[in-house]
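Appendix C reproduces, verbatim, an entry submitted by the partner laboratory led by Prof. M.T., so that reviewers can inspect both the input and the predicted structure.
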Amino acid sequence: MNKMKRYCRLYKVLVSQFLKTIMQSKVDFFMGLLGFFFTQIMGIVFLYLVFEQIPSLQGWTLDQLIFIYGFAQIPRGIDHLLTDNIWLVSYWLVIDGDFDRYMLRPMNLFFQVICEKLQPDALGELVIGMILVVISLSKGILAVDIVHVLLFLVSMIAGAVIYTSVKLFFASLAFWVKQSGPFLQVAYELTNFAKYPTEIYSRAVRFMITWVIPFAFVAYLPASYFLMKRDALSTIGVECVIAVVLWIVSYSLFMYGTTKYESAGN
């Protein structure tokens, strides 16, 4: 318990220092934030343009797709906000030898990586995601009660863990290949498939995003519980199991990789 309090206190101190740093250039901060909002809005505009030509997509209505799209953005935004620094492990920290500073400190290595940076751009994903979910609620396409609210929160946390675990797994490969950023980039691009029902994709794509890199479990499959009244155990329950397993595998690979780390030297 004391160790947990210590890490919480350290996280607060380190994040506050990072926020002071980025606020030194307020124009850059707000321009980046607005740019990310614009990117998210364009995705929604694309949906509306598609449905102007096609009233339904494999039986899915626009209101349902808006909910799935918003549902996908929230866990992705949580992951983006809190663990974006993992990208630097895959691209620069290992190959440049900058990972040395983490190895020299008497703190958990993963904690040091994620507490060094927050990504304010993620607010665009979070805000847009929550707005779309609220709009879906106003359309009356899903029930709202205490059970649904609790399962929604559980799914958001599990989805964020899946996003983080995938990033950490591919970033950890850098301890062997020195720069794993391109692999991580390719894997993370598959998150775009999670914003839509898997039925619209080919069998190979469905298998890839469900069982190889399980991004289907961060949006479509848990969202189907709310939209189609599917069994909670086979949707959100499976999502939680996958999140736990994937996290254990990814974190174990990361910690093992740190034992193989070789400083770049001079």
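DSSP finds 13 helices and no strands in the chain. Additional entries are available on request from the coordinating office.
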